[in-house]
Design a protein that fits this description.
Blueprint (H helix, E strand, L loop, with lengths): L3 H5 L3 H19 L3 H16 L18 H6 L16 H6 L15 H13 L51 H12 L10 H13 L5 H9 L3 H13 L1 H14 L18 H12 L4 H14 L25 H24 L18 H11 L2 E7 L3 H50 L8 H15 L4 H7 L2 H18 L8 E7 L6 E4 L7 E5 L18 H9 L7 H14 L20 H12 L11 H10 L11 H6 L12 E2 L2 H11 L18 H4 L33 H4 L19 H9 L1 H18 L3 H13 L5 H20 L5 H13 L3 H4 E2 L1
Antiparallel strand pairs: 1-2, 3-4, 5-6
Helix pairs in contact: 2-32, 3-6, 8-9, 8-10, 10-23, 11-12, 13-20, 14-15, 16-17, 16-19, 21-22, 21-23, 25-29, 29-30, 29-32, 31-32
Length: 853
């Protein structure tokens, strides 16, 4: 539990430690490139205020603010940015209201937001602001795909490039090194020295399992850092069940996974966790990537009749849904959005194609006509959600009978509650009807109808659409009635607690027998139908022929998973590379189109892609993810240190040439899990329904219904890995949210790495962090005994995998003495234990703990 005294008593060492933390973060921030600043700082501002008029669906004045290059390019009034000069930039003049039309419409950005955009513009140079392509095509409505369109680099099937010859052949450990070193040598650069053994083992452990190594494992590797020992360590970690948890989390980011639907009511999805577990198992079993693709898009069609086959198809249904669409119009709107989510996510995650941008109009830059978008929508349009029990008929029948018995016991209470609430609900509905009627009279909206006719229509419509909430009733009920009502509700709830636990069921999708017709929706609106279309594939990647009317998703999945598809293998290996090196060879990992990034090493990317789908090593699995990990991790490119070389920095500021390893901060989940490891409280239980760590009731006890269990507590059950936390879209766990958890509304190919004050406050004051610091201190005492010097050494070993320096040892002793004296003065029961807890708390706030390398 939080100890106010420990928070108040932050001595000199603590301040120094926190200062070190933020000095490191500040250095990392100042090294950001304009593109990084745009993605991390400017994009959130535009998404909040601007993209509704300058985004995917609408681009007023021809201005698209979704990417840096499109923003710089501007719209109908020309370039919107003058590199390095905010005051001369049209964009900046409009948002500071110095020129008309003042933007955003109807409001103004905050001073902090304006300063962020100004900072980004100042960081631009003519070279960084240059268009990504020499000329971007101007697309006109209804254009045809040409041979030139098919010549874009990512639309051409990769060919295994010849491994280059290099001068420093001794540095080359495998083909990856040859491609990287060739680029470095051509730019008169050399790779960095290898990382020391302690750094390397922590890097590999975090990359493959998301968990730090034990001090004993570090000591063993430091004593024997041979190539054979290194390879054995990689093999051991790839075989670890924690590997699937780590890499499964990466995939869930892409799959916009959550355990609830989102929006206002955010209804739970009680069986969604089966998909999460399926993903973890698929990685642990090294499922070939092509099979991984097939299963998530069409497993129900590959294994008809098998309830478990539905589970991976939740990939298509993971997106947010309102699930409370009452009217036919609302249902049609939601259905249109669900299919858009399926098309956009499938195309970007598996193929790196932004097909979703063609929903309302032909894609502005990529050869993706609106017609092709709706041909892909037709692939998904027959879908229907389904849930099938994963138990036998006998269990189903027994479950129904038990629930029926509870229903019978509840019946008298529900009847009494209904009789009590009926006149109250009628009164509320009458008030709503009379309000709307008065409004219609005031605004002359009755038309030719009489008041009685209008009232009758209102009553019929509101009866369908209006849901009288408990809080509405609370406003008009008498105190005497409220007492009776609460008693009835309690009796009903007490009986609900006696119901049998829901049995496991598979959520997923199947196709209807009669799919109906699909049309182009003009401007993305289902109400205005254009030409009819048949199911098909993107013309630029295929022969343009229609698919067969049945098993449409299976045909799409086979097209994506084919080695003939020029994009799939490239996108997959680029993602693996990104998670190991911090950035992809193509940095826009879900956009290989004309406005996306170009590969820094195109020959290496194609070599990896061809090796992935058709390996030359006879022992490597075809489409084998683990084999690709191993190839990357065995390279000297991966083993480089992350120290800065001034000469290389001057030539290649953002390390595109890979002359060093990129330092990276732990993601939110890895940070929380690492704290649990050092405190020795990590519960390694795998799989099953999501867990509910404690959240402050003030955060969750809002709205019309509880968002999180109010009695949730942190204990052994909730000390499981963070991947098992229940993902409630409306209530992300604060500790995870503040450290840039993925956005679950859309696919998240690249997490932001922000540096904001709430992160420091969370590390200092979050109840979970303080509790783990206490457990960490207790572990140190158990393992090191009462000797203070040994306690300091053990804390450093457990958290930082090294011994403290002489200066650090002196600082630590001074800190512990100061804290102990302070607690003695306040007559604390255990001053030594409290001081050690504060020390362990400070250790967990160090950059060295928060960052890989």
């Amino acid at each position: 539990m939080k100890n106010p005294e420990s928070v108040k008593t932050i001595s000199k060492l603590t301040i120094l430690l926190f200062a070190g933390l933020f000095a490191g973060i500040a250095m990392a921030f100042t090294a950001q490139q304009p593109g990084d600043v745009f993605k991390q700082k400017v994009t959130p501002i535009f998404e909040q205020n601007c993209v509704m008029c300058h985004g995917a669906k609408i681009q007023r004045s021809g201005l698209d603010l979704r990417t840096e290059q499109a923003t710089i390019k501007g719209g109908g009034r020309g370039a919107s940015v003058v590199p390095g000069k905010p005051e001369e930039s049209l964009l900046y003049k409009l948002i500071t209201h110095k020129e008309e039309p003042a933007m955003p419409m109807g409001g103004k950005l905050s001073d902090a937001e304006l300063a962020t955009i100004a900072e980004w513009i100042k960081g631009l140079t003519p070279s960084t602001a240059a268009p990504v392509a020499d000329t971007l095509p101007t697309r006109t409505h209804g254009y045809s795909i040409t041979a030139k369109d098919r010549q874009w680099w990512s639309f051409i099937k990769p060919v295994r490039a010849a491994v280059p010859t290099v001068k420093n052949r001794r540095w080359v450990r495998n083909e990856i090194d040859a491609f990287v070193l060739s680029k470095l040598e051509s730019n008169d650069l050399q790779p960095s020295a290898p990382a020391d053994a302690r750094t390397l083992i922590r890097r590999v452990y975090i990359d493959l399992t998301g968990l730090p190594p034990s001090p004993e494992e570090v000591d063993a590797f430091v004593k024997n850092p041979s190539n054979r020992a290194y390879e054995k360590m990689i093999d051991k970690l790839l075989a670890s069940p924690h590997y699937g948890e780590r890499w499964g989390r990466h995939w869930l980011d892409l799959a916009r996974y959550a355990d609830s639907g989102g929006y206002e009511f955010d209804y739970d999805r009680p069986h969604a966790w089966h998909y999460r577990d399926w993903v973890i198992k698929a990685f642990n079993n090294d499922m070939p990537y092509n099979e991984f693709v097939l299963a998530q898009l069409a497993n129900d069609q590959l294994k008809p009749g098998d309830p478990e086959a539905l589970i991976p198809t939740m990939f298509c249904l993971n997106g947010p849904t309102q699930d409370n669409a009452v009217t036919e119009e609302n249902r049609a709107d939601e259905l249109s959005d669900i299919m858009d989510d399926m098309v956009a996510t499938t195309s970007s995650v598996f193929m790196g194609v932004t097909m979703g941008c063609a929903r309302c109009h032909d894609h502005k830059y990529d050869p993706l006509p609106t017609k092709d978008y709706y041909r892909m929508v037709a692939v998904f349009s027959p879908f229907e959600k389904t849930t099938k029990p994963l138990v036998g008929e006998t269990e189903i029948a027994a479950h129904k009978e038990a629930n029926k018995a509870v229903d019978e016991k509840q019946r008298p209470y529900r009847q009494q509650l209904s009789a009590l609430e009926k006149p109250l609900r009628q009164r509320l509905m009458t008030e709503k009807i009379e309000f709307h009627l008065a409004l219609a009279e005031k605004t002359n909206s009755l038309g030719d109808k009489t008041k009685e006719q209008y009232r009758a229509e209102l009553a019929a419509r509101l009866a369908r659409e209006v849901n009288i909430q408990s809080e509405d009733i609370d406003e008009i009920i008498t105190p005497e009635q409220q007492v009776i009502r609460k008693q009835l509700l309690k009796q009903i709830e007490d009986l609900n607690k006696t119901r049998p636990k829901p049995f496991n069921a598979a959520m997923g999708m199947t196709d209807k027998d009669n799919p109906g017709k699909m049309h182009v929706y003009l401007r993305g609106n289902w109400r205005t139908k254009g030409d009819e279309v048949q199911p098909g594939l993107p013309t630029v990647l295929s022969d343009g022929k229609d698919l067969q009317p049945t098993n449409r998703r299976k045909q799409l999945a086979e097209f994506i998973a084919s080695p003939e598809n020029p994009l799939t293998a490239r996108v997959a290996v680029n993602r693996i590379w990104k998670y190991h090196f911090g950035n992809g060879l193509v940095r826009t990992t879900s956009d290989f189109g004309l406005t996306g990034d170009r590969p820094s090493h195109p020959e290496l990317l194609d070599w990896l892609a061809t090796e992935f789908a058709n390996p030359t090593d006879p022992q490597a699995k075809v489409w084998g993810v683990k084999a690709m990990h191993k190839r990357m991790l065995l390279s000297n490119t991966y083993r480089q240190a992350s120290q800065v070389n001034e000469q290389a920095l001057a030539k290649d500021n953002d390390n595109r040439l890979l002359w060093r390893m990129n330092p990276r901060r732990l993601e939110a989940e890895a940070l929380r899990d690492s704290m649990l490891v050092v405190s020795n409280k990590l519960n390694k239980q795998m799989y099953g329904p999501g867990i509910y760590p404690r959240i402050d009731p003030d955060i969750i006890n809002t709205g019309s219904r509880p968002r999180w269990p109010l009695d949730a507590k942190d204990n052994n059950e909730t000390f499981r890995r963070s991947i098992y936390i229940f993902v409630k879209r409306s209530v992300p766990l604060p500790m995870i949210e503040v450290f840039d958890c993925p956005v679950t509304v859309v696919s998240s190919p690249n997490r932001a790495t922000s540096t904001v004050s709430p992160q420091a406050l969370a590390l200092m004051n979050n109840e979970f962090v303080l509790e783990q610091a206490k457990y960490f201190a207790e572990r140190v005492t158990t393992e090191a005994g009462a000797d203070v010097n040994k306690q300091i050494a053990r804390a450093f070993q457990l958290a930082l995998h090294r011994k403290p320096s002489v200066k650090e040892q002196d600082w630590s002793l001074s800190f512990l003495k100061s804290q102990t004296d302070g607690y003695l003065q306040r007559k604390h029961e255990r001053p030594d234990a409290a001081a050690l807890r504060d020390f362990c708390h400070a250790i967990m706030n160090l950059n060295e703990f928060l960052y890989v390398d």
